[in-house]
Amino acid sequence: MLGLRLRIILARVRTRGLPGKVLRFSAREFLRCSTPRKLTNFALAKVQKWLRRDRLVSMPYRYFIDPLNVCNLRCPLCPTGRGELMRPQGKMNLEDFKRLVDQIAPYAYSVQLFNWGEPFLHPHIFDMIRYASQRRISVQLSSNLNYFSEEMAEQAVASGLARLLVPVDGATEETYQKYRRGGRLEIVIRNLRLLVEAKRRAGSSTPFITLLTLVNRYNEHELGQLRQMAADLGLDSFSTCPIFVNTRDREQVEEWLPEDERLSYYDYSAEQLENVWHCADLWESCTINWDGGVAPCCWLQDPSHDFDNAFTKPLREIWNSEAYISSRRVFSFGGPRKGPEQTICTRCRGRPEYLIC
To answer: CA-to-CA distance for 15 and 13, rounded, in angstroms?
Structure first.
């Protein structure tokens, strides 16, 4: 009855512009994926985070699962693009993925099926999407969409993919290739049209397609054009994301950070640039790499920072391991408390910069 009432309310909501569409999509996905057990777990996770508990009854309700850490582009601020990944390259086995999904399905609202690679390069990506979606998990991908085809567009729609984020960091070919090196804007636009047409033919509202712009000094003046591009292509939303840099590297700061501070995470007035990110991952989400390595967040690409391995140990056991307990104590009320072991979270303190971590 509650779900029916919420659906009626959502149907009556009059939204203005694209942000309203995102809100309605997110709410509908939450309702679609909800079960009494998931709702209880979700509420427990929020309460335990607010109380800063270090031992948790709840399980994560958001997951990053990286199907592979291989990419077809060479983005200059990405360890994959620079060829500096510390984790060996590889791809997750489909059966290992299914076993992971079986563990998390009672709790998971969403799986971000990407991290350090281009997910559409995985030969079983649509099987993965379909398997998780059938377990009432909202599957979301981020793809540069340079490797795509009409057949893949049809599979993406049929697989149950809930949302697709497509990073487009320039309204012109020249600007786009400043960051998406090795990619071509014209190919991305062509593939977006294929996807929109595949949705139309299938009469499907999913995947919900978002054109995402990583705001930097080269493209900050093109945001209006990019927003219009999303509308002209018939996409569902346009969004921006501030770029992250190694603040100890002045060349990166000067080349990439936008001149307009409002478009950045960083406080430009600080003597040493600081971001304003605050961590919730230790209570709400879990990152699992292609090889099963469990990391406390999606920023970490060094396997030496893994807390354990989800292919060899149950996730629930890992979730309340000494590594997780110690990491949560970093954020205790009244300041950090010492845990049974030191972790990368002791150094990060909720303000990650993946080039340093």
So the answer is: 6
Best CA proximity match to 119, nearest among 77, 169, 80, 158: 80
CA distance 308 to 6: 39
Q: How many residues does the chain have?
A: 357
Helix or strand holding residue 213 (H, E): strand 208-215
pLDDT tens digits, one per residue of 90-99: 999 999 999 9
Tokens for 280?
A: 């919730």
For the chain, list the domains and their CATH numbers.
17-49+57-348 (3.20.20.70)
Q: What are the tens digits of pLDDT across the range 128-170?
A: 999 999 999 999 999 999 999 999 999 999 999 999 999 999 9
The residue among 69, 67, 236, 66 whose CA lies nearest residue 162 is: 236
Is-contact 87 291, C-beta < 8 A?
A: yes
Residue 288 pairs in a beta bridge with 65, 294
Element (H, E) at 229: helix 223-232
Radius of gyration of the chain (CA): 20
Asked if 97 and 288 count as a contact pair (C-beta separation under 8 A), the reply is no
**CA dihedral angle for residue 244, residue 117, residue 283, residue 1, rounded to 10 degrees:** 110
Q: Which structure tokens are listed for 138?
A: 């909202």
Burial-class residue 255 by CB neighbours within 10 Å (0-12, 13-18, 19+). middle
How many other β-carbons are positioned within 10 Å of the β-carbon of residue 341?
13
d(Cα 157, Cα 204) in Å, to the nearest integer?
A: 7
| Structure tokens given for 189 | 């636009």
Strands 110-112, 285-288: pairing is unpaired
Cis, peptide link before residue 352, omega less than 30° from 0: no
Backbone φ, ψ for residue 149 (5° rounding): -155, 170
Quote the tokens at residue 196.
């929109």
The 10 Å Cβ neighbour count of residue 193 is 13
Q: How many helices (H) and strands (E) does the chain have?
A: 15, 11
Q: Which residues pair with 138 in a beta bridge?
A: 110
Going by the DSSP 8-state scheme, the letter that residue 258 receives in this structure is -
Q: Are 176 and 217 in contact (CB under 8 A)?
A: no
